[in-house]
């Protein structure tokens, strides 16, 4: 297990594949295995993948202090620098997309291209998760019932059609059971997300940007993707019809293809 010291803690990371570096930034409660093997396998045909776990998550060192999205973006920047990567393509999903926005704004010299998936920028016009969904997920987490927590999260993270597909929940459960996130870290991540607002600064992003969003996203409705793409100069918006929040689980090959095409277009 490879660890990287950052401000006040240590992060687990790994590298796999060959090609130009692609930094993958996970969302709330997600660790590096939550990308799913089909998606990672498809990506590493074109990129060297740099995967890591956020503070207090997955195989990173336990952590019990509050943090902001900006703090998590600083972790990502420090990781890139420590690995002696001059510039990286960056993929951030959900909370990871918020971190990737902040990284592209505060360390633009490190970001070659930017892909933002199923994410949110805060500010006027943004739409957060509906209160009823938040309450349902919170009750499942607080119940202490691990199976209920996974099943509830699954139901809101993917489209209704994919949720009932044969073997889909079972494959997700295998990953979700590995490294449960401590409740204080969940709370800290929620607080960081609620304070996130890059809406007034997104026009400053200079990296070529692709925004991907599923039209059936129940956690961060598709209007957020449309808003983010509209605020970033020359950003391309790709909507995946009938797909939920975890678009890279539902359509791993298509998601990887979109990123490879985005990078190729920027290079050209």
Description:
- With 268 residues, the protein is an alpha/beta fold.
- The protein has a single domain (2-267), classed as Rossmann fold.
- 41% of the residues lie in helices and 19% in strands.
- The protein contains eleven helices and eight strands.
- It has helices at residues 37-43, 69-82, 95-106, 131-142, 146-157, 160-163, 168-176, 183-194, 223-231, 247-250, 252-267; strands at 2-6, 9-17, 20-25, 47-52, 88-93, 111-117, 209-214, 236-240.
- An eight-stranded mixed beta sheet has the order 1-2-4-3-5-6-7-8, sandwiched between helices.
- Helix 1 packs parallel to helix 11 (252-267) and helix 4 runs antiparallel to helix 5 (146-157).
- The longest helix is centred in the last third of the chain and has 16 residues, at 252-267.
- The chain is globular and about 50 Å long.
- The protein starts with a strand and ends with a helix.
- 45% of the residues are buried.
- The mean pLDDT is 96.
């Amino acid at each position: 297990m490879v660890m990287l010291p950052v401000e006040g803690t240590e992060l687990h990371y790994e590298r796999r594949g060959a090609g130009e570096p692609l930094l993958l930034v996970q969302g709330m409660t997600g660790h590096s295995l939550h990308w799913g093997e089909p998606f990672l396998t498809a990506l590493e045909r074109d990129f060297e993948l740099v995967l890591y776990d956020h503070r207090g998550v997955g195989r990173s060192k336990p952590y019990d202090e509050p943090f902001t999205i900006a703090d998590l973006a600083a972790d990502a920047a420090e990781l890139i620098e420590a690995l002696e990567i001059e510039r990286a393509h960056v993929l951030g999903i959900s909370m990871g997309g918020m971190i990737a926005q902040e990284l592209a704004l505060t360390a633009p010299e490190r970001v070659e291209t930017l892909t933002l998936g199923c994410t949110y920028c805060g500010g006027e016009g943004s739409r957060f998760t509906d209160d009823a969904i938040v309450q349902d997920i919170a009750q499942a987490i607080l119940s202490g019932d691990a199976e209920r927590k996974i099943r509830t999260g699954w139901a809101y993270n993917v489209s209704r059609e994919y949720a009932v597909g044969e073997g889909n929940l079972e494959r997700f459960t295998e990953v979700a059971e590995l490294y449960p996130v401590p409740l204080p870290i969940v709370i800290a991540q929620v607080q960081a997300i609620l304070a996130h607002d890059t809406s007034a600064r997104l026009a400053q992003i200079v990296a070529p940007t692709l925004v991907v969003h599923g039209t059936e996203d129940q956690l961060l409705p598709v209007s957020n993707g449309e808003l983010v793409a509209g605020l970033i100069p020359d950003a391309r918006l790709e909507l995946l019809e009938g797909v939920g929040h975890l678009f890279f689980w539902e359509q791993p090959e298509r998601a990887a293809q979109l990123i490879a095409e985005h990078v190729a277009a920027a290079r050209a």
